[in-house]
Amino acid sequence: MKTALRTLILAALFFPAAASAQTYQPWNNPDSPSSGPSSGPSSGRSSGDVQGLVGRLNTLIDEAERSRAADPKFLGDLRKLSNEYRQAAPPSRTRLLSDDFADGDFTRSPEWTVTAGKYWVKSGWGLRSAVKADAASAGTGASQQQRPSGRDAAASIFGHILQQAIDPNRQSGGGQAATNTGTVLNPTAIQTGFRTPNAFAIEVDFSSWAAAGRLEIGPYQGIPQGGDRAQGYILAYTPGGGLELLRVTRGGTSIIDSAPARLSLEDKKTHRLEWTRRADGAMTVAIDGKNILSATEVSFRGDFDGLRMVNRGGDYIFKRFAVYGTQ
After folding, report:
1. Closest Cα to residue 324, out of 198, 173, 202?
2. What CA–CA distance (Å, rounded) separates 87 from 259?
3. Are 92 and 49 in contact (CB under 8 A)?
4. Are 61 and 79 within 8 A, CB to CB?
5. Are 271 and 207 in contact (CB under 8 A)?
C-alpha cells in the first residue's frame, strides 16, 4: 500500500508540473493513428490531505484521458487505485472541543459544569474524579438495625427483581451504586455543552486507579440533571466487566452492543479511548488503537447538545478530551 500511495503522490506531483508547462499531447496508439489534442488541462487547488490529493489526481486523470496523453489501460488502473484510496481515507474532521486541563481550570475554555459530586484538576495529571463510600449513607451496621421480617425481606427482594426487569442497566438505590456490603456510593457527573453533529469522533485519554465502579461517557440531547442518565448514547466501562454501548431514550435504556472481555486498564497508566460515529449510524469503539465494539444505531438523527461523563464508584484521571465533527 505504501508503494501504491507513493505512486499516487508522484503522479499528482508530476502531472501538475507537466500541465503548467504545456497542454497534454495525444498518446500515440501503436495500433491506430492518433487524433488531435483536446482542450487544455483544467486548473484546481491542491490539498494536503489524502482526500484532496485523490480528488486532484482524478481531475488530472480525466484530462489525461481527454488528451490521450497516456495508455488508457494505465490510466484506468491509476483511477481504480485512486478510488480505492478515496474509499479507505479517513473522513475529514472539524475540531469542536479540545481540553488537556493544563490551565488548571475546567470551568472555562471550555466550560465544564459539575452537576453531581466533585471534580478537580490535579496539577500535571488532569481532571480527577474519585468516588468513595458515603459514611452518612452507609448506615450504622447490622447489629444496630432492626432485623427485617420475612415479609419485608421478600418484598424488598421482589422490588429489586422488578426494578432490574424494567431497566437492567439502572443501579440500585435510585441512581446510586451500591456495593455488596451495603455501602452507598453517590455518583459524580460533569458535562460541557456545545453543538455536536450526528457524525462525530470522541477521543479520551484517561487512567483508572481503582478496580471498582463504572464510568459512563457520551453525547447527550436536552438538559441532563444530577447523576441521572440523559437522552443520547453512552459508552460504559466497568473494571473487569468490559464495555457497553447504550442507547438512552424517553422509553428507557437499552444495550446496543457489549464486549464482556476483560480490559486491563487499572494499571494507573494513560489509555486512549476512541469512539467514532458516521452519518449512517455506524459506530466503532477502540482502546489503545484496538477495536473493541462495532455497531450501527440510528435512533438519534439530530445534533447533540454536549458531552457528559458520570463516575459511579471509580477513581479516574482524565488527561485529555477531544471531540470532532466528521463528514
Report:
1. 202
2. 28
3. yes
4. yes
5. yes
CA distance 256 to 300: 13
| Structural contact between residues 243 and 258, judged by C-beta atoms closer than 8 angstroms | yes
Residue 75 in contact with residue 65, Cβ under 8 Å? yes
With the CA atoms of 77, 81, 86 and 89 taken in that order, what torsion angle do they form, in degrees rounded to the nearest 10?
180
Type of residue at 146: Q
User: For the chain, which domains are there?
Assistant: 2-87 (no CATH), 93-134+180-326 (2.60.120.200)
Q: How far is CA 200 from CA 92, 174, 324, in A?
A: 11, 31, 6
**Are 239 and 208 spatial neighbours (Cβ–Cβ below 8 Å)?**
yes
* pLDDT computed for residue 84 by the predictor: 64
Confidence at residue 129, expressed as pLDDT on a 0 to 100 scale: 97
Measured distance CA(239)–CA(271) in Å, rounded: 13
End-to-end C-alpha distance for the chain, whole angstroms: 24
Q: How confident is the model at residue 8 (pLDDT cuts 50, 70, 90)?
A: low
Question: Does 311 have pLDDT greater than 70?
Answer: yes
| 3-state SS string for 127-177 | EEEECCCCCCCCCCCHHHCCCCCHHHHHHHHHHHHHHHHHCCCCCCCCCCE
